[in-house]
Amino acid sequence: MKLEKEQLVEMYRRLLRIRVFEETAVELIKKGEVPGAAHTSIGQEGEIVGACMALRDDDYMVGNHRSHGHPIGKGADLKRLMAELLGRKTGVNQGKGGSMHLADFNVGSVGETSIVGSGIPLAAGAALGAKMMGTGRVCLCFFGDGASNEGAFHEGINLAAVWKLPAIFLCENNGYAVSTPASATVAVKDIAERAKAYDIPGVVVDGQDPVAVYEVVSEAVKRARAGMGPSLIEAKTYRYMEHAIGMRAGNYRSENEINEWKKRDPIVMLRGELVRNRVLDEREVTDIEAKVHAEVEAAVEFARNSPFPAAEEAYDHVYANPFPIAH
Predict the structure, then answer these.
(1) Which strand ranges, in their side-by-side order, compose the sheet holding 231-236?
(2) Which residue in 68, 194, 239, 271 is the catalytic one?
(3) CATH number for the 5-307 domain, one of 2.120.10.30, 3.40.50.970, 3.30.365.10, 3.40.50.300?
């Protein structure tokens, strides 16, 4: 499936947005400006962007605790995302969701959560709604290798398979559930093999290659829109940073392993291909990079200049107001 120049350039731009946004977020965390825990997708940008670009703007997407990359990959506004990380009222969830609980309906992001595997049944529900309403939408669900061992994995995918729901379940296999290697907890070599139990396609793809991921997910999307049901895709990828910022999980992986994966940095690889194939020249690449840095800087400024939510808003957008707000 051939991508047009505009699509390839946008793919590179979104990869950069995730990387620069998250590197900036890490610095803000170190300064104490971001409350709560945060998990980065640095190193995993290829599978995120490749998958998201195979979707329509109105398609649904469900993420997980490693949550900034997914909405950015879907085209979310960086200013409101950064404001959410800083707990500001102008954030996508009025500053109440924070890093791990982002939702941005403007780009079809129906939610991200810190509960491992919980997005899988949610994705099945979104896909069921799309099928019942006849909108032609699909739902892309991101989850990690650790989540593939949760009961929700079986329940959600089994239901989607039985009802032939328009869902694409994408396992971001970065090799570790926090510090536990997948090889110690997953009986099969490839998580995609588990698709056989549900009689749906199971495909393994190089998660560092956004174009390869785009092609595989595009086929799954086409199948889902045609009423043929879900697919399970396993993207082999790697996170360069720790499980969470500031977490020290011990020496569970070697420097050599990390360095080998860094040789296959998705941003460096795509940049090289675009220049080599004369899609972009060096000047155009530099210009894109400068504009992305400026976007992220503007997002930080917007967030810092935004107000915090008021105390009396604490129970807005929840099902009950159990306690009066004391002044």
Answers:
(1) 109-111, 60-62, 139-144, 167-173, 231-236, 202-206
(2) 239
(3) 3.40.50.970
